[in-house]
Amino acid sequence: MFKKILVPTDGSPLALSAASTAIDLAKAHGAQIIGVYVIDPFPYIGIGDASAAGLQAYLSESRSVAGQALDALAKVCGAAGVPFSGDTIERNVVYEGVIETAQAEGCDLIVMASHGRQGVSALVLGSVAQKVLTHTRLPVLIVKG
Asked: CATH number, domain at 129?
């Protein structure tokens, strides 16, 4: 039923927990895991020479963190014998990057983690998982932490 499962990651233990669920599904369906890490763009203000240096430092660190998160995901997929490919993208809005990647890769399921915030904290902080659920037509499996 599922052939490509998108697993957004931020490198957290909660994201790896969602990955574990996705791996179980992938094994059952003979599917591939597609990992994605969405980098927020540098908050460039365009003032002074330090901005260019700050941009490079920010992108270098962001790509390093993204690489570590995707490597961890690749490792657990490899240990389970599940095919994996990962990508790092830069988007202003994280949920849009998740949905765009799912569409571009031809995924038929998104498996992602949620902190399960409720009430005012959910309202104030927002939720990438909630926004993905609201804006995609693909099935989404939320693994609560």
From this structure: 3.40.50.620
- Assign 84 to helix, strand or coil: strand
H-only helix segments in the chain? 13-29, 50-80, 94-105, 119-125, 128-135
pLDDT over 70 for what percent of the chain?
85
What number is the average pLDDT over the span 117-134? 67
Terminal CA-CA length for the chain = 26
CA-based torsion, 120, 123, 125, 127: positive or negative: positive
Structure tokens at 83: 């095919």
Instruction: Look up the domain containing 36 and give its range.
Output: 4-144
Please count the structural domains in the chain: 1
pTM across the whole model: 0.88
pLDDT of residue 122: 46
